[in-house]
Structures are given as structure tokens and as C-alpha cells.
Design goal:
This protein is an alpha/beta fold. It has eight helices and seven strands, in the order H-H-H-E-H-E-H-E-E-H-E-H-E-H-E. It has a seven-stranded mixed sheet, with helices on both faces. It starts with a helix and ends with a strand. About 5% of the residues have low confidence.
Amino acid sequence: MPETSASIASFWDAFAASFDEEADHGLHDPEVRAAWAERLHSWMPSSPAEVLDLGCGTGSLSLVLAEQGHLPVGVDLAPLMIEQARRKLTAAGFDAVMLVGDASNPPAEAGASFDVILSRHLLWTLPAPEEALRRWIGLLRPGGRLVLIEGRWATAEPTEDQSYEVGSEAMPWMGGVEAERLAQALRPLVKTLHVEPLLDPALWGRPIQDERYAVVALT
């Protein structure tokens, strides 16, 4: 696993400088930012909630959460992504914790219990996504919620810009995961869940043809 983690970290570090150029990554467009802020507000409990943002990337969602009065902790395997997240939060006046670590098994310094665990487009990158889901639920307080922003892209085959050099390690959800498949994996682990389609072009800065959704599960 250390070699796999190093490969994945290097993969995402290579994208760190340009990552925020995507409309839904950097949230520079006011309409895109407002669309995500509205959705996040609808999924979160009353502020201030302690939120673990897994696979936080450059910290754009963590920043929106902080602006809404929540207390985000970000974890990402890519050091250069975390550097940008720290700069972004600090520049906005927030003293949020942003940590380099394995989002599938968050480091102890992130904390032991949270009101919310959030991830966006992370599960496809994990060698053992269902194990990660069980681990995350174990970090939620009673009545906590898991917010998974996911999708199923047009192909399950890794492309040149969507693959890792990880030897024989398989990514079982490469290409994304269908909403129903993810819901089936979660139902035995949570009290309730609902699936919310995310097809509004305002969220992505462009029209979407593939499956995009959020699963919000309560423990």
C-alpha cells in the first residue's frame, strides 16, 4: 500500500497547479459557487458542525463550509493540494486544519468523531471503497451524517488522465459508481439515506450527460 499511496499522491500533485481551473473545483464563477453553497447548506446540520472533508483537494468546499459557520477539517493524500487548501483558507481568514493523509483511513490527528463526513468524487480513487465507507461511518457521532457527492462517468475504463501507476492494485469503482450501487452498500450501515440528483449545469459550469448525484445518509 505505501507504493500505491505514493503513486496516487504523485498523480494528484501533478494536477494541483491547474486543479482549480475546472469550474466545480475552483468555484471561481459566482453562479457555480452559489450553486454549491446552496447545496452544502441544505445537506449540513445547523452550524457550527464539525465536518471532515475527505479528499478535500484544494479546499474549495471546506472554504464554503467555513464561510457558512462550520468547522471543517480537510484530508488529502496529495501534499501540493493541501498546500493550496491551507493558503486558500488562511487567505480568507480561517484557521482550519488541512492535513496530508489517506482519506480512506483518516489520520488520528484529524479527530475521532464528527457531525458530518463529506467527500466529493473520491470513492472511484480508492482500492477498497466499501471498507472506507465502514471506516468513515465509525467516525460519525450518533445522528451524524455522511454526504457523498458521486457519479458514474461515461466509461469504466481508465483513461490517460484518469489512471494510476499502481501495479496490480484494482480500483473497483474506476469510472465512478452508480447511485443505486452505492446506496446498496450503505443501507446496512445507516439508519436512513436519500439520493439527490445533481444535474443542474450551474453546479458544474456546463451541461452534464452522465450520472451525478449526492447520497446523504444518517447514522
